[in-house]
């Protein structure tokens, strides 16, 4: 498992940092007034802080100069008053900014989740989930903190520096000019820093995402790792990735150290030069000693805002890359969307037609034919069609096309005469229900899992009960009733762990309970033992009598459920017919479905001619 | 002494700990912190030294300027002597340069330390995750373990990145400034000392309240992650069953809980931070008040008062940073509590303390009076004894839930028996060196999980460092070569997350190739061919016949075709082995297997 690069890192166009961050505006909009107020409060606080030393100086001088104690109390009260104002302003800043900031984060997170749910399966195939997770958590967290803290302080500190510089300038143009001149290299270095830092920041966030992916896979694939005893191998891999991240982080620290260096050094140079200039000015009598004191007192206060610029710049660039990562997903164009004016299937009967359906994965090499290369197939209402083909022939993909989990790249699929792309996805998926081979159950009760497709029912209504019971019966999932809390038992990851066969039966029950016009079952019985399979089949027959069904099958027994069988071969349906007629007519079909070995070494029973095989002539 | 209610990850989602439990959790996370810092002692000391010198050089600045104005300026005015001025400016430039260089150096040094701690912690959690038994993973969701390793580590990283820096330089700065104040005017120093009382009270209040809230943010963030991961992992089912809207509501709710917990944490800080500023500012006023009257009395000079007031104010300057440090500390402490909980978990299938090596296993597996139960009420496998001679191929059949998989998991030591022993070549699996155990026994399950990376990488998992040729031969042996070649980049095709574009059957073939490459003495196949079509299965069967000729195998399959290659069949029912014999014997009989076999033959073409 080598290092992975995120799918679409480093897009071609490069927005300026401000423009890049501005994209957050739609989500931040409701918080903007309070952020502005917060900035105002922070500014007042900063200015009060700026003024306190000066006020102190004046007060001390004027109140105590004449040596009587009368002036002390007012001076103390003014100082205390200013101090209280500063504290209140800081409190206000936090009050204004922080709660709205958390709302912005929550909005961003919800939009992100919504977008991800909307994006097609192909997107999810392409993107590692750890990358998505690190965007949803770490990156959005960073954006919130920047909005509430970084942005506010950045603006306020910049204003403070400008105001302070002006104050310095009015005191002494020469000294002020020296101070400002020393700030120029900082700005220049700032630009260099942006370039260098942004790259590293991006790399670090991507690597953190990769690390999250590895963590996720190491947990989801724990059984495989354990079975092969590859824990230490996985650890080596992980450690290797973590080391790369560490390298990047240290590089990042070096970049920060670079800007810190200048941010600390230049004010010191300015101070030294100002001291020299100040002594000269004072010696010529152009500046009083008191003024010189005041100059340095003010300049000293500007040190913190200047130093903080380094940290705030770094944070801003971090946020910028975080927003880039966020918008990479948000700007992803959804290729499978609802039509502008969706049609409806008025009278749902369940006639499913594949009309010259083509499909190829985006990254299929040019020379190769389409995976599905012109599939023509018609399922009459109520008909059960088995889909047969060798592994990798595209059966599962074909079933995924029917509910638009993937989109046809050519041709069309019709349900009751309506192109499925003309239906809203919601309606389409109401008409069709699927059971997947790898049965995903969600962390919820069995009831909720089975009734997942029945959002029209109140979960605890008697109708729901009836549907649930029937579905469990059909799928032979009666075991659910014997669980500790019966059908209210939580299953899925956060609940009881079930065996593969049990999960598969619940997934089947879920598809059946959805009571769709068309049932699409992708090898739904593969994990069942022979006895259970027979029972499920018997029960399914009842349901299938009235429902159109497309069933991907590997076993002859499943094929028996079907009215007709379609054979998928080299991207096309090469034969359709009853099991027996295909057995007779299609060599490929016999190859795919017939499992009897003539030279069976252990089983001495006769190889052919028994059972219910009836080759029609 | 220690309450088991908070041992390991139990009680993780609670927030109503008793004093005793709280102390136990704190002790455990401090122990972890200590063990993380331990190896870095020298580096930490070195870094401290750097930061002390650089802070000292920063504090020296104002003193130099004061000296310049007080002494160098009169020298110029009185005597036209510029030497002291040049000297001061020179010294100032040097201290400035030294300070800047040291701070830059310190930044890198502290990054190295924090990254060393992080990587250590990451590896420990990862190793622990791998070490913990399946039983743990079955109850502790993947989302939670992921959140421990991502968002919890993030908050620790935050503390290390900026927090330590703030703490060290802030504390030193305050220390130096306070000292300077005492030297200047000890009365003002006393006022400052008194101000520490409300400061401590406020801090204690913040500590208590924020601890609870930050714990909650950790729990809530884990919930967000759990929901997120579950949705993305099951995106197909989400879409197919139109769960999007309902998910949005559920996700919105956990996001709101997380936001709320965050907002509460932030609000606490929103009181703490201005509170500190207020205390600082009022202390300045108090120093002014006390000093003012003393100036009137003639006890001190105005200049000294001014300096005292400025020092007092400066003393509180780093307070905000210190408060932020404390805030990130509280957040990180909550994260550390959760992580230390995971690290405290003891695997229920522990590695042996003095392992026995088994360089070459023959593959003789035996169960000696083994009983297996999850807990007292649910016995999965009642006591049984079973001997599987080396080289024998066993087919395990029976209905779902009969205990076949459990038996297989006992051989591969996913679980340990509740009673009795499982032996490989006469060695108790619990004593066998894990490396030898895993080399000797490999299990392939129905869920063929693919890791992101190339197809070749995935096969090579069976034998790290395998050559391209070995990988190819393994794939050829199980009949996976053709379809792999047809992929966009052949063996180098990225299978991506969960093998989205590789079908279930193909995934099984890849995991078969993996097992083939691993070349174990004992191979366990748990429904490993369920998703294969018949021609592929036939190929696999053929491969198996060669592969299994000289090794022990336990095959669980619902399709009885597998039985064809078995030397012996075990039929299980309700955890018990009810039939045991060669396939021919059993088929000839009238037992369950004979019936199953007949039914199966019926179902064939």
UniProtKB/TrEMBL annotation, chain A:
SMART domains assigned to the protein according to its UniProt record, in alphabetical order: AAA (SM00382)
Keywords, in A-Z order: ATP-binding, Cell membrane, Membrane, Nucleotide-binding, Transmembrane, Transmembrane helix, Transport
Cited PROSITE patterns: ABC_TM1F, ABC_TRANSPORTER_1, ABC_TRANSPORTER_2
Residue ranges, annotated region (Disordered): 598-617
Entry's Gene Ontology molecular function annotations: ABC-type oligopeptide transporter activity; ATP binding; ATP hydrolysis activity
Transmembrane domains' residue ranges: 31-52, 72-92, 146-168, 174-193, 259-281, 293-317
Domain ABC transmembrane type-1: start-end pairs: 36-315
ABC transporter domain sequence ranges: 352-595
SUPFAM superfamilies, A to Z: ABC transporter transmembrane region, P-loop containing nucleoside triphosphate hydrolases
Topology within the bilayer: Multi-pass membrane protein
Name of protein: ABC transporter ATP-binding protein
Organism: Labedella endophytica
Organism lineage string: Bacteria, Bacillati, Actinomycetota, Actinomycetes, Micrococcales
TrEMBL record, chain B:
Domain ABC transmembrane type-1: 45-331
Pfam families: ABC_membrane, ABC_tran
Transmembrane segments: 44-66, 86-109, 190-206, 268-293
Compartments in which it is found: Cell membrane
Record-annotated ABC transporter domain positions: 365-599
GO molecular function: ABC-type oligopeptide transporter activity; ATP binding; ATP hydrolysis activity
Alphabetic keyword roster: ATP-binding, Cell membrane, Membrane, Nucleotide-binding, Transmembrane, Transmembrane helix, Transport
Main location class: membrane
Membrane topology: Multi-pass membrane protein
GO cellular component, one term: plasma membrane
Record-linked InterPro entries: AAA+_ATPase, ABC1_TM_dom, ABC1_TM_sf, ABC_transporter-like_ATP-bd, ABC_transporter-like_CS, P-loop_NTPase, Type_1_exporter
Chain segments carrying region Disordered: 1-20
Top-rank taxon, per record: Bacteria
GO terms (BP aspect): oligopeptide export from mitochondrion
Sequence similarity: Belongs to the ABC transporter superfamily. Lipid exporter (TC 3.A.1.106) family.
Protein name: ABC transporter ATP-binding protein
């Amino acid at each position: 498992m080598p290092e992975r690069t995120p799918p679409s890192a480093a897009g071609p166009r490069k927005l300026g940092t401000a423009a890049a961050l501005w994209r957050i505006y739609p989500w931040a909009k409701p918080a903007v007034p309070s952020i502005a107020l917060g900035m105002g409060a922070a500014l007042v606080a900063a200015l009060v802080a700026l003024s306190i030393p000066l006020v102190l100086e004046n007060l001390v001088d004027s109140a105590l100069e004449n040596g009587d104690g009368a002036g002390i109390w007012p001076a103390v009260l003014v100082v205390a008053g200013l101090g209280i104002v500063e504290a209140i302003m800081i409190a206000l800043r936090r009050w204004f900014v922080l709660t709205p900031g958390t709302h912005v984060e929550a909005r961003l997170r919800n939009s992100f989740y919504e977008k991800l749910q909307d994006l097609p399966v192909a997107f999810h195939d392409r993107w590692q989930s750890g990358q998505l997770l690190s965007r949803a958590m770490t990156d959005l967290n960073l954006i919130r903190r920047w909005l509430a803290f970084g942005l506010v302080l950045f603006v306020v500190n910049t204003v403070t520096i400008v105001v302070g510089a002006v104050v310095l300038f009015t005191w002494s143009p020469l000294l002020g000019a020296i101070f400002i001149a020393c700030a120029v290299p900082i700005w220049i270095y700032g630009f260099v820093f942006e370039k260098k830092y942004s790259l590293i920041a991006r790399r670090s966030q991507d690597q953190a995402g990769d690390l999250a992916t590895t963590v996720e896979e190491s947990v989801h694939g724990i059984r495989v790792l354990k079975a092969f005893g590859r824990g230490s191998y996985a650890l080596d891999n992980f450690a290797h990735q973590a080391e790369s991240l560490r390298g990047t982080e240290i590089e990042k620290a070096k970049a920060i150290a670079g800007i810190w260096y200048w941010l600390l050094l230049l004010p010191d140079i300015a101070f030294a030069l100002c001291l020299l200039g100040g002594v000269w000015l004072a010696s010529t009598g152009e500046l009083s000693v008191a003024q010189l004191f005041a100059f340095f007192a003010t300049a000293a206060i500007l040190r913190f805002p200047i130093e903080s610029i380094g940290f705030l710049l770094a944070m801003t660039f971090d946020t910028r890359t975080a927003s880039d990562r966020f918008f990479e997903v948000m700007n992803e164009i959804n290729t499978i969307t609802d039509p502008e004016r969706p049609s409806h299937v008025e009278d749902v009967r369940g006639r499913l037609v594949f009309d010259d359906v083509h499909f190829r994965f985006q990254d299929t090499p040019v020379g190769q034919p389409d995976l599905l290369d012109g599939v023509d197939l018609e399922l009459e209402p109520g008909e059960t069609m088995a889909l047969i083909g060798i592994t990798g022939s595209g059966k599962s993909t074909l079933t995924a096309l029917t509910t638009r989990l993937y989109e046809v790249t050519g041709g069309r699929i019709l349900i009751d005469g309506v192109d499925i792309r003309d239906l809203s996805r919601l309606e389409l998926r109401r008409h069709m229900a699927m059971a997947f081979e790898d049965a995903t159950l969600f962390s919820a009760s069995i009831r909720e899992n089975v009734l997942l497709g029945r959002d029209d029912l109140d979960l605890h209504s008697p109708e729901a009960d009836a549907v649930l019971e029937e579905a469990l019966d059909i799928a032979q999932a009666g075991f659910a009733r014997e669980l500790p809390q019966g059908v209210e038992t939580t299953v899925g990851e956060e609940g009881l762990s079930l065996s593969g066969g049990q999960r598969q039966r619940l997934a089947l029950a879920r598809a059946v309970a959805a009571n769709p016009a068309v049932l699409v079952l992708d090898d739904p019985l593969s994990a069942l033992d022979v006895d259970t399979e027979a029972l499920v089949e018997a029960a399914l027959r009842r349901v299938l009598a009235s429902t159109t069904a497309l069933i991907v099958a590997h076993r002859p027994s499943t094929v028996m459920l079907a009215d007709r069988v379609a054979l998928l071969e080299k991207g096309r349906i090469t034969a359709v017919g009853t099991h027996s007629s295909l057995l007779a007519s299609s060599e490929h079909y016999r190859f795919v479905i017939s499992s009897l070995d003539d030279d069976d070494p252990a089983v001495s029973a006769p190889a052919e001619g028994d059972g219910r095989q009836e080759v029609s002539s | 002494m220690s309450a088991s209610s908070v041992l390991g990850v139990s009680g993780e989602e609670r927030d109503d700990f008793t004093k005793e439990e709280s102390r136990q959790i704190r002790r455990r996370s401090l122990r972890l912190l200590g063990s993380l810092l331990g190896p870095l002692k020298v580096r930490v000391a070195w870094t401290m030294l750097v930061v002390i010198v650089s802070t000292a050089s920063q504090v020296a600045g104002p003193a130099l300027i004061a000296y310049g104005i007080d002494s160098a300026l009169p020298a110029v005015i009185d005597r036209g002597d510029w030497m002291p001025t040049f000297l001061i400016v020179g010294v100032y430039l040097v201290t400035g340069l030294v300070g800047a260089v040291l701070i830059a150096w310190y930044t890198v040094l502290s990054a190295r330390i924090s990254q060393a701690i992080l990587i250590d912690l990451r590896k420990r959690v990862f190793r622990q995750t791998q070490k913990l038994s399946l039983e743990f993973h079955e109850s502790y969701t993947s989302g939670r373990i992921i959140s421990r390793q991502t968002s919890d580590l993030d908050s620790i990283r935050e503390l290390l990145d900026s927090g330590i820096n703030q703490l060290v330089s802030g504390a030193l700065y305050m220390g130096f400034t306070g000292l300077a104040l005492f030297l200047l005017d000890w009365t003002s120093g006393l006022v400052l000392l008194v101000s520490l009382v409300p400061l401590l009270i406020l801090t204690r209040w913040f500590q208590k309240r924020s601890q609870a809230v930050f714990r909650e943010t950790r729990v809530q963030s884990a919930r967000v992650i759990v929901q997120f991961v579950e949705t993305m992992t099951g995106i197909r089912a989400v879409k197919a069953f139109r769960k999007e809207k309902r998910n949005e509501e559920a996700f919105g709710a956990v996001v709101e809980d997380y936001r709320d917990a965050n907002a509460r944490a932030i609000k606490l800080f929103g009181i703490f931070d201005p509170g500190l500023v207020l205390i600082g500012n009022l202390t300045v006023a108090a120093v002014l008040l006390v000093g003012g009257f003393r100036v009137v009395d003639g006890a001190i000079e105005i200049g000294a008062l001014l300096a005292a007031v400025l020092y007092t104010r400066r003393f509180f300057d780093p307070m905000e940073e210190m408060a932020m440090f404390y805030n990130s500390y509280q957040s990180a402490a909550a994260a550390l509590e959760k992580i230390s909980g995971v690290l405290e978990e003891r695997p229920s299938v522990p590695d042996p303390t003095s392992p026995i090596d088994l360089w070459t296993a023959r593959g003789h597996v035996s169960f000696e009076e083994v009983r297996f139960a999850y807990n007292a009420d649910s016995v999965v496998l009642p006591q049984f004894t079973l001997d599987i001679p080396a080289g024998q191929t066993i087919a395990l059949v029976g209905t779902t839930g009969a205990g076949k998989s459990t038996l297989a998991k006992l051989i591969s030591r996913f679980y340990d028996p509740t009673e009795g022993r499982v032996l490989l070549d006469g060695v108790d699996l619990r004593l066998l060196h894990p490396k030898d155990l895993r080399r000797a026994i490999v299990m392939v399950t129905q869920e063929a999980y693919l890791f992101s990376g190339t197809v070749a990488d995935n096969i090579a998992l069976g034998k790290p460092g395998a050559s391209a040729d070995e990988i190819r031969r393994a794939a050829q042996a199980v009949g996976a070569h053709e379809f792999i070649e047809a992929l966009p980049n052949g063996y180098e095709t990225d299978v991506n997350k969960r093998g989205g574009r590789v079908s279930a059957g193909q995934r099984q073939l890849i995991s078969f190739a993996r097992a083939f490459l691993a070349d174990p003495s004992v191979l366990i196949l748990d429904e490993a061919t369920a998703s294969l079509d018949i021609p592929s299965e036939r190929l696999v069967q053929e491969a198996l016949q060669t592969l299994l000729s000289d090794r022990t195998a336990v095959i669980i399959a619902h399709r009885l075709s597998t039985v064809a290659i078995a030397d012996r069949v075990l039929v299980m029912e309700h955890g018990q082995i009810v039939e045991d014999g060669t396939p021919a014997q059993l088929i000839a009989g009238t037992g369950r297997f004979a019936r199953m076999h007949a039914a199966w033959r019926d179902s064939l073409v």
